[in-house]
Design brief:
The chain is mainly α and about 250 residues long. It is built from eight helices and two strands. Strands 1-2 form a two-stranded antiparallel sheet. α1 (about 1-20) packs across α2 (about 30-45), α1 (about 1-20) crosses α5 (about 135-150) and α3 (about 60-100) packs across α7 (about 205-225). It is elongated and about 85 Å long.
């Protein structure tokens, strides 16, 4: 029973992380593979964490510990998921401005329909995450969390919950920053349409303006593609700093 408790509680924290983390939380990722990966990592870290003092395996106290471990894991994964959703939101903003929002496909992470541009940004951000070894960083963070929050001994403070909630605000700020260049460029294009219509009323510019706006949107997205990696690196560094502060390994 003691060994089951020592294995089950870290398993719940790691499973909470994988349920909300970039990449592994996608519905397209097989559930058995995620469970086996969680079990494998749990078996590896059980010998290096202190044993859990539990009276009975099936009790109210053990149930509370299980919920706490899930919340800690989900909180760490939530921070990384906000980085991914920032690109989805930026893609939706650009799609609305360019008229490309009519092309929608199913998001495999959230299971909802999103514009194709948002899905394109989502795929690129996920690939950058794997390329930067983000999954290894997350495993390192969750292992260090057992030192900051020993099972049954420590828990999140109210200030830490507030910081996690405030972190979600960075998603909207970064999404607007990422989509600012396409928005301004398309605004200039629309202003040019207005000037042309005023100068030559016999030309029905707005009848072909929708198609031109879509073409210009694709061109602008291509020209601003270099900023995608830069924005991801900035947000990923901020998310790592946020997780470091949660697991108490950096100021």
């Amino acid at each position: 029973m003691q060994y089951l408790a020592d294995l089950m509680l870290p398993f719940m924290r790691i499973s909470g992380l994988f349920a909300a983390m970039i990449g592994l939380s996608a519905k397209s990722f097989p559930m058995p593979a995620r469970a086996l990966l969680t079990l494998f990592i749990s078996i590896l870290i059980v010998p290096v964490i202190p044993p859990v003092e539990v009276g009975e395996l099936v009790s109210v106290g053990t149930f509370v510990l299980v919920i706490q471990q899930l919340i800690i894991g989900v909180a760490l994964g939530f921070i990384t998921n906000m980085v991914l959703n920032m690109f989805v939101l930026a893609g939706e903003i650009v799609s609305i401005q360019t008229g490309l929002g009519f092309a929608s496909i199913v998001d495999p992470v959230n299971g909802v329909s999103v514009p194709a541009i948002g899905q394109f940004y989502l795929i690129l951000a996920t690939l950058i995450f794997w390329a930067l070894d983000g999954h290894l960083t997350m495993i390192r963070m969750v292992v260090m969390s057992f030192e900051a929050f020993p099972i049954g001994e420590a828990w999140f403070q109210p200030e830490q919950f507030r910081e996690i909630a405030h972190w979600a605000g960075w998603m909207f700020i970064s999404a607007v920053t990422l989509s600012l260049a396409p928005i301004v460029s398309l605004l200039i294009v629309n202003l040019a349409f207005g000037v042309m219509t005023k100068a030559a009323p016999q030309l029905n510019i707005f009848s072909i303006g929708f198609s031109i706006a879509q073409i210009m949107g694709l061109v602008i997205i291509w020209l601003t593609m270099d900023n995608l990696t830069h924005h991801f690196e900035i947000m990923w560094d901020r998310s790592q700093l946020m997780m470091c502060r949660l697991v108490l390994i950096c100021p």
